[in-house]
Amino acid sequence: MLNHPPHVGAAPISRLGAFASLSEDERRALRLASEIPHRLAASRDLFHAGQRTGGSLIVLDGWLGRVKLFSDGRRQILSFLLPGDVIQEPRTFQPVAVSTITALCDTILCPAPAAEDEGLREAYAVSAALDEANLMRQIARLGRMSAYERIHDWLFEMHERLMLAGRAGPDSFAMPLTQETLADALGLTSVHVNRTLQSMRRDNVLEWRGGVIRLKHKGASARATGQRGAIGTAHVPAGTAPLR
Q1: Contacts for 241 with CB less than 8 Å, ≥ 6 apart
Q2: N or C: which end of the chain has fewer CB within 10 A?
Q3: Domain holding 186: CATH number?
Q4: Domain extent at residue 174
Q5: Does position 235 have pLDDT exceeding 50, yes or no?
Q6: Which of helix, strand or coil describes residue 192?
Q7: What are the φ and ψ backbone dihedral angles of 128, each rounded to 5 degrees?
Q8: For 41-84, what is each residue's pLDDT tens digit?
């Protein structure tokens, strides 16, 4: 049985509040929504691709992945959904899930409050823009980066996103995934991931102990992967609301 972590409702307020100025009523709506939790055990599917959806959701706790399954059993994780992220329903007459979403660990979600005022409307719009920017970043990782660069860049993206949700320290975060899951996300084998992580440890780039990642030399990482400036909040496409 999944336990309801303390202050689990803080992640969406932290993340969405970084995107727009939320009124007290909107913050209250987010807190009330978090009191209607939907618990999903690890390895269970939230939606299957093509399945009708039942409204937008917010991730309160845990990690989920948008996945593509192949007939021979292989799996590609297309993107990750972390605490504070909004799973927005497609704007179609009969909304269906565009991909299968699977819980990668025990997860808690809640309904996303309706965006009746400007604050939440703006926050949801910026959240959707960042989701798209992160997907573009994943495509670039898989297409042009070495294994070392892929893992390094992915870890820094997760850290930046968890920082927005108040779920990371200045240089560390809890990472509940296995090396096999990381391989599914980065188009590598588990053996390649393991060897690359060992190289990163020898290079004093990271520590991974007890399910916690500690990152080092962030500026060097940005230069090594060709990134300019902070990724995540800096990647909001032009024309969307600025972060506040």
Answers
A1: 19, 20, 122, 125, 126
A2: N
A3: 1.10.10.10
A4: 147-233
A5: no
A6: helix
A7: -65, -40
A8: 999 999 888 888 888 999 999 999 999 999 898 999 999 999 99
Under DSSP, the state recorded for 166 is T
Nearest to residue 208, comparing CAs of 224, 194, 190, 225? 194
pLDDT exceeds 90 at position 129: yes
User: What's the CA gap between 236 and 241, in Å, rounded?
Assistant: 8
Q: Are residues 180 and 76 in the same domain?
A: no
DSSP labels for the chain? -----TTTTHHHHHHHHHHS---HHHHHHHHHHHTS-EEE-TT-EEE-TTPBP-S-EEEEES-EEEEEE-TTS-EEEEEEE-TT-EEPPPSSSS-B-SSEEEESSSEEEEEPPP--SHHHHHHHHHHHHHHHHHHHHHHHHHHH--HHHHHHHHHHHHHHHHHHTT-B-SSEEE----HHHHHHHHT--HHHHHHHHHHHHHTTSEEEETTEEEE--HHHHHHHTT--S-SSGGGPPTTSPPP-
Identify whether residues 127 and 184 lie together within a single domain.
no
Q: Are residues 42 and 116 in the same domain?
A: yes
Counting the structural domains of the chain, the total is 2
Same-domain pairing of 88 and 131? yes
